[in-house]
Amino acid sequence: MTLVSVAGERGVTTLTLDAPGNRNALSASLVADLAEALTACAKDPGVRAVVLTHSGSTFSAGADLKAPPNPYSFVALLRQIVELPKPVVGVVRGHARAGGLGLLGACDVVVASPESDFALTEVRIGVAAAVVSLTLLPKLEPRAAARYYLTGERFGVPEALRMGLVTAGDDALDDILDGLRKGSPQGLAESKRLVTAKVLETFERDAEELVQRSASLFASAEAREGMTAFLERRDPEWVW
Questions:
Q1: Per-residue pLDDT tens over the stretch 156-199
Q2: Angle at alpha carbon of residue 116, lines to 113 and 120, rounded to 5°
Q3: What is the spatial distance between Cα 123 and Cα 104, in angstroms, rounded to a whole number?
């Protein structure tokens, strides 16, 4: 059973992360299913744009700690979104955490409903927002990035707009999609190449080092304590 549902309407294909019982956590299976769906969108001349959204109350809770994806596979997925020759619009109507923010950073446009909230929670389980930095740091306001990388605090849509994570409220979605439908396939693809060039430079320069850093952190004793504490719903040993 696929963990990503697909629907199309007037040239826009909607890909829905559809594992609500697991808060759409980024398991190896979900990452593979999303990559497959994106590949199909890239090849389909009838697809003008892609919407990436979710079922349930959570866009994505980040990495599935019980069945995490290979970090190279996740990097490949993020790059696939960035390089897709069709615009990708992220739609959040709920919570987004950790690796889920990496997916949003890879999208070209992100809209969010007023009740949505966000957090980079990696620091609280003994790791860092390493791989997701490939899509986030080129786009986020530096002071805001420092605060939320370091504290793991939850923040809402107004702050997400200010720092560059979110483009607009979800009431702008119809206008955005109507605008994309008016663009030519070539015009959209070439315009996207222009606006993603700096992000792709980051992939070329930093991807390998960040994958290695992430793997090292996840294998550490401190991370094992953090992940165990998370799964056991208790504070890790370093919390005062």
A1: 999 999 999 999 999 999 999 999 999 999 999 999 999 999 99
A2: 140
A3: 19
Q: d(Cα 77, Cα 64) in Å, to the nearest integer?
A: 15
User: What count of other Cβ atoms lies within 10 Å of the Cβ of residue 236?
Assistant: 18
Instruction: Quote the CA–CA distance of 200 and 213 in Å, as a whole number.
Output: 19
Q: What is the pLDDT of residue 65?
A: 86
The helix/strand/coil state of 165 is coil
- Going from the C-alpha of 175 to that of each of 157, 170, 171, 181, 234, the distances in angstroms are 19, 10, 8, 10, 44
**Active centre residues (catalytic):** 122
pLDDT 10s digits, 54-67? 999 999 999 998 88
Q: What is the mean pLDDT of residues 93-119?
A: 98
Percent of the chain with pLDDT over 70: 100
DSSP 115: T
For 94: left if phi > 0, alpha if psi spans -120 to 50, otherwise beta; the answer is left
Does the domain formed by 4-170 have CATH 1.10.10.10? no
